[in-house]
């Protein structure tokens, strides 16, 4: 209202008396609280692909701090994997390292079999591993690159879930890593973005498939995050400004993403399935 403008009556003067709730007459009574273990993932076993570095490493350490034993699937960086395993063991949790190519169905089956042999169960499956090959021209994306990107980023998720399905019990959780590029696209990551969009649909469909078994399936769509994948795949000029165009003005750190996975894997997220979380530095996306 402009200064000095006179108020005018636009509705009858009135007072609405709020209706009293009758909660005490409800049957059953609503549940307002439950006991929470100080370690949210105590006694759980989690498989994390790409858990040797980047977001996967942060998730593995965060899970261990919450009481979970961790299986780390990784491709070939033994040094990073051993370093992550050492940190998990220093926390007091067990860690099993399984190197190999998750684009191969037989290897995905081996990951689950070794997990069951070592720990006797599987509570959380984090499909996190991914690759990218930036290209400025569409014509530069070869059939070989296209196949490799899809094999690793989305087909491997199918293989792992198929291998894990017989062993997942009520209360288990699957968490898939997608990306902000699934929602806004990326001109120089066409094949990568396409796989990340497929992961969103896979997550939603898989949640419907597993709902009757009380197994939850969700996703996390990070924005720019400072991981080894960035300097390994982008030119130096891009690396120097990476993440500066987000509303928060910077790339995220892996630890800032890991909390979403911990929450989704825990009983605190017991009524959440088929959803995607967006730790992306403030970019508003169409979810």
From TrEMBL:
Entries under InterPro entries matching the protein: NAD(P)-bd_dom_sf, Sc_DH/Rdtase_CS, SDR_fam
SUPFAM superfamilies xrefs: NAD(P)-binding Rossmann-fold domains
Keywords: Oxidoreductase
Keyword Ubl conjugation: no
Top-level lineage group: Bacteria
GO terms assigned for molecular function: oxidoreductase activity, acting on CH-OH group of donors
Region (Disordered): 1-31
Composition bias type Basic residues, residue spans: 1-14
Family listed: Belongs to the short-chain dehydrogenases/reductases (SDR) family.
UniProt protein name: NAD(P)-dependent oxidoreductase
Organism, scientific name: Niastella populi
